[in-house]
Design a protein that fits this description.
By secondary structure, the chain is α+β, with helices and mostly antiparallel strands. Helices cover 47% and strands 19% of the residues. The chain has 11 helices and 10 strands.
Length: 272
């Protein structure tokens, strides 16, 4: 069995694997960081992606997909047919990348991950059969987060280009989008950029429910929370029939012209 060292990060390793243009790629028992690296590398890769099958621990995968930034990009890959997800509660194998002509063991030491490679003609087919058997026995993972491309397109079409641009810029300024104090969640981001652009609560919450971000009730609860901490405010807009609609606006006028990164930073500080 021959072995070579391939890269010092999962992203580096995946780049080399993608460059070899395999027809399929199995990612078996990856760490949380490795799952994120797979999504990032596949999203950023310019060439033709292999049909990638990612098999991970069920609870680990759910936790990673709790970050909207990761999950929405994952959804894009799934919709394009480049990625499929399955889970298992009984993964005893090492972290592996398996193609039709090589097996790469992912070995982490400190902050670095190396890829130990073998292309042994006797070993690779056996390893491939084993991971395919694992894949067939695993459960399909249903991702409920909408694809980021669909989120942006519908936001542009239904709410406005300025809102979509602010939404994209705020997300780009975040390292994570979980709403757990480390990053704003997708509902909070939607409401903040809607308030910056003085969008009706009805319109942004209907869009959010239709695209699959969250229910109208969740948008309403989050709006109340943001009002309570002084980030946003509302004003009534009369309509011909029924109760007045609420127009969202930023509570502090100084934030109106703030760049999206500053808006996100202030919101995170207030909410943490």
């Amino acid at each position: 069995m021959t072995a070579n060292l391939l890269g010092t990060s999962v992203g580096d390793i995946l780049g080399e694997v993608f460059d070899a243009e395999p027809g399929e790629l199995f990612v078996v028992n990856p760490s949380a960081d490795a799952i994120e690296s797979v999504v990032d590398a596949a999203t950023e890769f310019d060439g033709a992606l292999p049909e990638t099958r990612l098999l991970a621990d069920d609870r680990l995968l759910k936790d990673v997909m709790g970050d909207f930034l990761v999950a929405s990009n994952t959804a894009d890959l799934i919709e394009s047919g480049a990625l499929a997800l399955r889970t298992s509660d009984d993964l005893s194998r090492s972290s592996l990348l398996v193609t039709d002509d090589r097996v790469v063991a992912l070995v982490t030491a400190g902050e670095q991950t190396a890829g130990l490679v073998t292309d042994d003609e006797a070993f690779v087919p056996v390893a491939g059969d084993a991971v395919r058997a694992d894949w067939e026995a695993a459960e399909e993972y249903t991702l409920r987060t909408p694809a980021i491309s669909r989120v942006r397109q519908t936001l542009d079409d239904e709410i406005g280009a300025d809102v979509e641009a602010d939404f994209t810029d705020v997300l780009a300024s975040l390292e994570t989008a979980r709403g757990d104090g480390d990053g704003l969640d997708e509902v909070t981001v939607s409401l903040l950029v809607a308030a910056k652009n003085r969008v009706l609560l009805y319109d942004i919450s209907k869009w959010g429910e239709d695209v699959g971000i969250a229910s109208k009730a969740t948008f309403s609860r989050t709006k109340t929370k943001l009002e309570d901490v002084g980030l946003i405010d509302t004003e009534k807009v009369p309509i011909d029939v029924g109760r007045p609609r609420l127009r969202l606006k930023l509570a502090d006028d100084r934030l109106q012209d703030a760049p999206p990164s500053e808006l996100a930073s202030v919101a995170q500080t207030v909410l943490s």
